[in-house]
Amino acid sequence: MPSRRCPAPALVALALVLLAPALAVAAPIRLWHAYRDDEARALGAIVAAFQGEEVELLAVPFDAYASKLQAAVPMGEGPDLFIDAHERLGDYRARKIVAPVGDALEAGGEAVFQGPALAAVRQGGEIFGLPISQKCMALYMNTALVQEAPATLEDIAALAGALPQGVYPLAYEASNAYAHMPILAAFGGAMLDENDQFGFVGPGPERSLELVRSLIARRVVPEDANGALVTDLFNAGRAAFVISGPWFVGGLKDEAKRRSRVVPLPRVRETGRPMRPFMTVEAVMLSPQGAQRAEARALARHLAGAAAAATRLEVARTPPVRSDVAVPADDAFIAAFTEQAKVAIPMPTSPAMRSTWEPSARAIRKVLRGDAPPDVALSEAKHRFDDVRRPLPPPASPAPLLVALGALALVLVLRWVSAAKGAARGPTLRQSLPAYKYVAHAVVAVGVLVIVPLVIGAATSLFAGSGESLRYVGLANFISILTARGEPLFSSGSFYLVLAVTVLWTAVNLFFHVLLGVSLALLLHRPTLRLRALYRVLLIVPWAVPSYVTALSWKGMFHRQFGAVTGLIEAVNAAFGTSIEPIAWFSSFTTAFTANVTTNVWLGFPFMMVVTLGALTAVPEEVLEAAEVDGASRWQRLWKITLPLIRPVLAPAVTLGAIWTFNMFNVVFLVSGGDPDGTTDILVSEAYRWAFTREAQYGYAAAYSVLIFLLLTLATRDWRWRRRTPGSTIPQGGGAADGSAPAPVAATEAV
């Protein structure tokens, strides 16, 4: 009798198929933002009031925001919606990571948005974002020092002799291109013209820089001021006026907030025009996958709605962009920024705008420090802009690459076959399996974390462009780097000049690392030294503190006006009646390089000290005692016995130190920032600039990285070859340099 099969599995499978739509759980709506503090709290309250699907909020650091979007959205792993500044729209459209808002804009909604907010997110006749806020710079007044708003910038400058000593009439980041824009606009200038060409040239821009330089010379404006310094001056009551945006309030103390008042920026009497800052419109944007979800468009409409704008106004004090949101009549803060936004200039959305910041900032710093006249500095800035914006290399044929890869694969296969034949005569594979199990996880980890990124980086160096313009160019990036982009080989910013600075940087740092590390280790190793344990802990602290914290601390100490070094100079002048001038550390290569080296030496000597202390514990005491009995002096015992014995341990430590110093990005980038004029940049910081500040030329930056890797590989291989060469002076293990006798015996005989 045939057996009957149970239909239960089939029925269950059929039921699951029929019920799948009902059982499916909708994926949450993913929303990315870069808000902090009050703005983040306001966004959380707005999202909590959304009546719809679950929303997954993710706060991404601002510095990494654009790069994470560019990496995640094309792979389908990014957000459905994201909040960002409108000036990035041009780049986002080129990379296809933003889509038109469609019906997310409510019917008749175009009339609701006031000023140029909606025009800022409109491109090609379509709207690519819903404005939620607009931010620009205005004028903060310290009502404890001044009571009336100035009519002109010259009226502020006239306060220089009337205010108490040590108080600046005006504080702002004068060397920052974004902060310079209001004065530039008053002289009829622009960062980028309508043809996407560098606009920061000509008589108007030159005159704007001359005006700012005169303000600094008359001590109306502090020199080399950054955002933190401006905030500190206002909190301390040492600034009558400050040019900044709504974000400035977040750093003010309660007492400073009470005596602050915001008014629109004044005019410039020389031109009769108002100071017009850049305006940034923050908008809710939809990714291509988010634009296809009705619930994501509904959330975008909610985020840009009147209720959400009222919440931002109440919680984060953000000026609204909607005309149907009433601003309290007694709220002078919001009213001032709303009034200022009416004359502000929306920042251009062209990708070329990103290429203006670095050359503009360098030109401004050169002029304000007196290193170059305005016409020369701005002409150099235009040249740098044009160099970054040059056309991409023509496409290349991938045939040579495929042939080379095929030949390499053939060589590897032949070597594998040869190795397999040799293994057949030795232990069998089964006998070796336990050993393979022990190293398998390490091989996988190294492959995923080291080999794969290296291969991807090397492959990226063979391409240029991004998005639709991405093309295979072969070795064009390498040729461009090695030929200095057609400029003289040792011109400013060329590979060879930066390489020379990098080698000098590595050699000087390594010398002081070894000198200080070994000297302190020898001192701490002395058994007669009291409190040795305490000294060791204190001397290791510089190594334990994160490098970026140390770099920023040293940068503050090197500030010409308010740094600790200047404070010491002033104390010496007061104590001894001298007249030593404060040092402008970042105005020349010598002083800026010295500042970088000082910071990195402080960070690096503890490593050499710890390694040397460990090596000294292995030096046999009986050998030193025998040498002393034989009449060797303390210097002879150090030079003939101790140093040869610890040299095998120091050699790899020095190699590691050289590699770390060669690639020490944090110190160079955070302390000098490449100043003056990029002369203190090293290879790794130059690669960073090509990747993240010069229109994201990742292929060119990857070529820099490949060259750095090859240089370090050749240098370390050369060291290994010298170790293996007969007659090498580097000891092998515990033996002498030539292998004739153990190191202790050879060292004692040398004494």
Characterization of this structure:
With 751 residues, this protein is an alpha/beta fold. It is built from 30 helices and 16 strands. Strands 1, 2, 3, 6, 13 and 14 form a 6-stranded mixed β-sheet that branches. Helix 20 crosses helix 24 (589-616), helix 24 crosses helix 26 (634-662) and helix 24 packs antiparallel against helix 27 (665-672). The longest helix has 32 residues, at 429-460. The chain is globular, with a radius of gyration of 32 Å. The termini are far apart.
Summed up:
Helices cover 54% and strands 9% of the residues. By secondary structure, the chain is an alpha/beta fold.
Task: Note the main sheet.
Answer: 6 strands, mixed
Strand content: 5-15%
Number of helices: 30
Termini separation: 103 Å
Specify the helix fraction band.
Answer: 40-55%
Q: Which word captures the global form?
A: globular
Low-confidence stretches: 1-6, 19-24, 725-751
* Rounded radius of gyration (Å): 32 Å
* Number of strand elements: 16
Structural class: alpha/beta
Tell me, rounded to a whole number, the average pLDDT.
Answer: 86
